[in-house]
Amino acid sequence: MPELPEVETVRRGLEDHVVGRTIEVVRVLHPRAVRRQPAGAAEFESALAGRSLDRARRRGKYLWLSVGEDALLAHLGMSGQLLVGEPDRALSPHVRILFTFKDGGPDLRFTDQRTFGHMCVVRDGAELPGPIAHIAPDPFEAAFDPAELARRLRARRTGVKRALLDQSLVSGVGNIYADEALWRARLHWARPTETLNGPEVSRLLAAVREVLGEALAVGGTSFDDLYVNVNGESGYFERSLAVYGREGFPCPRCGTPVRRDAFMNRSAYSCPRCQPRPRRARF
Ligand SMILES: [Zn+2]
Question: Is 69 a catalytic residue?
Fold first, then answer.
């Protein structure tokens, strides 16, 4: 599943290959891909035909292109990809929406095998689309306020990993990056947020930024010139993970075997020695 660094990589690709161009025609090839569009595929297509794409922006895992005062909002879901390439290439059966441009150059294809992703046009959404206004800023946005997050985190009375995954507190931190950041900050994932002291919160936020920043640096170089792509994988995953997906392997800091716990139908990976389980754990 694409996380913030992969989505940011796609945003940069859109900025390089699509922004500044004028759409000629939009064709919705599968209605499920525009299921959030109030009046459906015809409205989506007509709202975009002939219009110019001005900017590519992101909040958490949502992307949007500003189209005058409106927004073309996208979520990639589990398997969504935005592919840019020469218009005469073969049309894959997983293409859900096809955008062609007036300059006759590379087209844009929203491809999604499982169709959990979607796109929609949001009127007057250029600055911040209404459907995502409740999502908190992510750690790379100017609007992100570390002191405010620290205050809200301690007021939440939950486990710290659950809080990190709560998109209304901070966006863009998925399962993998939460585990890696907690390991770096030497905090157990079930640590009650109200027991975190100031330095621990600062350490955690620094670790979140560091982990996401490193993944961004890698993700930013992983697609070639004419191909904007996200597939939920990144070189970073294989090379730099300390604990995620590494049950039984030695902790890179102390050598203790990494432990896996069940967590919210998924897993939480941690080092039993560097991240001791708190006496009053909150799951
Ligand atoms: Zn350790």
Answer: no
CA of 255 to the centre of ligand 1 (A): 6
For the question of residue 2 being annotated catalytic, the response is: yes
Catalytic, out of 57, 61, 96, 259: 61
How many Å apart are CA 179 and CA 269, to the nearest integer?
6
Q: Are 203 and 271 in contact (CB under 8 A)?
A: no
- Report the distance separating Cα 239 and Cα 162, nearest Å: 26
Q: Is 57 helix (H, G, I), strand (E, B) or coil?
A: strand
Q: What is the pLDDT of residue 219?
A: 63
DSSP annotation of 34 reads: G
Closest CA to 7 of 224, 245, 220, 225: 220
User: How many whole angstroms from 242 Cα to the centroid of ligand 1?
Assistant: 9
Is residue 161 part of the annotated active site? The answer reads no
CA nearest 204: which of 226, 224, 186? 186
Taking 70 as the pLDDT cut, the residues of the chain under it are 1, 219-239
